[in-house]
UniProtKB/TrEMBL annotation:
Superkingdom of this protein's organism: Bacteria
Domain called AMMECR1: residue spans: 5-185
Organism: Chitinivorax tropicus
InterPro entries xref list: AMMECR1 (IPR023473), AMMECR1_dom_sf (IPR036071), AMMECR1_domain (IPR002733), AMMECR1_N (IPR027485), AmmeMemoSam_A (IPR027623)
PROSITE patterns linked to this entry: AMMECR1 (PS51112)
The protein's name: AMMECR1 domain-containing protein
Gene3D superfamilies referenced in this protein's UniProt entry, alphabetically: Hypothetical protein ph0010, domain 1 (3.30.700.20), Hypothetical protein ph0010, domain 2 (3.30.1490.150)
């Protein structure tokens, strides 16, 4: 568990990474042991309450600090759903950092078993089959509170039909600890 003080550092690092990439300043990495350990995160950007970018890592493959820097820049400049964030826009954009637990494999024989074991509002879920995969962070439960709708939309995100299921489906779940900048005035 990370405390609020560290959460504030994570948010500042994410914002600094974006500002630095936009050529406005140099990045200063905080020297904190918790940030030097391997970690996985997602960075979500919102402008006026609407999604403006979201990119992340499902598994730890570098230090948490490096993952935050990489994913903050990716969310701001490389999310294919949006044009790059400008420095002017950044002042109107709030940042959310979600630090993920290690993914936990879930063994289910079918979608009904998956729906029965889900914990709405708690679990992030990844579905993988063949070369396709998709994930929803636990925060997505706020928009899709019914497990059936949550899984159907997750399958659509992966490019499958809402009723798709395969015996080769690989399911993992994870939780997040999220930190969000205060709303802009």
């Amino acid at each position: 568990m990370l405390d609020e003080r560290l959460g504030t550092l994570l948010l500042a690092l994410a914002r600094e990474a974006i500002v630095s990439q936009l050529g406005q300043s140099a990045i200063k990495k905080p020297d904190t042991q918790a940030l030097s350990r391997p970690g996985a995160c997602f960075i979500t950007l919102k402008r006026q309450g609407a999604l403006r970018g979201c990119m992340g890592s499902l598994e730890a493959h570098q230090s948490l600090a490096e993952d935050i820097i990489h994913n903050a820049v990716a969310a701001a400049l490389h999310d294919p759903r949006f044009p790059p964030v400008s420095i002017e826009e950044l002042g109107e954009t709030t940042i959310e950092v979600s630090v993920l637990t290690a993914p936990e494999p879930v063994t289910v024989a079918n979608e009904a078993e998956l729906l029965a074991m889900l914990r709405p509002g708690v679990d992030g879920v990844t579905l993988r089959c063949g070369c396709r995969q998709a994930t929803f962070l636990p925060q997505v439960w706020e928009q899709l509170p019914a497990p059936t709708a949550f899984i159907q939309q997750l399958k659509r995100k992966a490019g499958w039909s809402a009723d798709f299921w395969s015996p080769d489906m690989i399911v993992t779940r994870y939780q997040v600890q999220k930190f969000t900048e205060p709303p802009l005035r």
